[in-house]
Inverse folding.
């Protein structure tokens, strides 16, 4: 199975420009016969807190139509993030866009800092994906700070764990250590996607990477690259 982590730069609020970046990355991944592509936390809107309400997507937002078409035509699963409004509650979420399937939603389960002022946390939206006989669990950034999260992924018989992240340069080393620990202790393959460049007034850390189930970082991008990290799990 081939997976891709998309390391992109986004501007908060510039949804259509950000989507164009998604289209380019997805098209590139399709050319490489990738089964699934992962984007960073809140990738479509850019990472946001107080702006989340006005930038929020609905559960079946028409702005996702082009991604749905690309998914179906390219036979690829796309995981991309946005604030999502569900029954008047606002969540940090990931859209799971699969070929010829209804869109699924994962919501962030553990919020960080000021996120709690603007978003709800929920464990009610936690689909497990199945691709090429592999079970796959998702995470969004601060989810990985709670060891119960990857533990639950393993308990759900997942072999692959996919965190969508926004790490600054200062936070990257801590994140690397956590992901290596989770990979080793839970015997998970972990693919992480992070931003490159300025995001929300901070310099993001880049470093999108892949850890094997022994906890070893086997591939990663640098802090400034914009592009795809490709991995193949046999």
């Amino acid at each position: 199975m081939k997976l891709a982590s998309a390391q992109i730069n986004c501007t908060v609020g510039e949804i259509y420009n950000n989507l164009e970046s998604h289209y380019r990355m997805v098209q590139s991944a399709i050319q490489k016969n990738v089964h699934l592509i992962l984007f960073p936390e809140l990738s479509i809107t850019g990472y946001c807190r107080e702006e989340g309400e006005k930038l929020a997507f609905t559960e079946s937002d028409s702005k996702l139509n082009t991604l749905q078409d690309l998914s179906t035509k390219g036979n690829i699963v796309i995981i991309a993030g946005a604030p999502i409004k569900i029954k008047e509650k606002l969540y940090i979420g990931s859209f799971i866009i699969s070929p010829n399937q209804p869109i699924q939603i994962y919501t962030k389960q553990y919020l960080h800092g000021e996120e709690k002022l603007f978003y709800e946390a929920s464990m009610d939206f936690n689909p497990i994906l199945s691709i090429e006989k592999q079970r796959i669990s998702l995470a969004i950034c601060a989810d990985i700070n709670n060891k119960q999260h990857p533990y639950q992924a393993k308990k759900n018989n997942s072999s692959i764990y996919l965190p969508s992240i926004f790490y600054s340069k200062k936070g990257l080393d801590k994140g690397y250590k956590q992901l290596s620990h989770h990979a080793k202790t839970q015997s998970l393959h972990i693919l992480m996607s992070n931003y490159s460049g300025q995001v929300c007034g901070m310099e993001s850390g880049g470093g999108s990477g892949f850890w094997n189930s022994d906890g070893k970082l086997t591939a990663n991008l640098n802090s400034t690259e914009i592009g795809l990290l490709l991995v193949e799990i046999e």
About this structure: The helical segments are 15-31, 52-55, 65-74, 115-118, 148-155, 169-186. The chain has one domain: 2-232. Residues 172 and 205 are 6 Å apart (CA to CA).
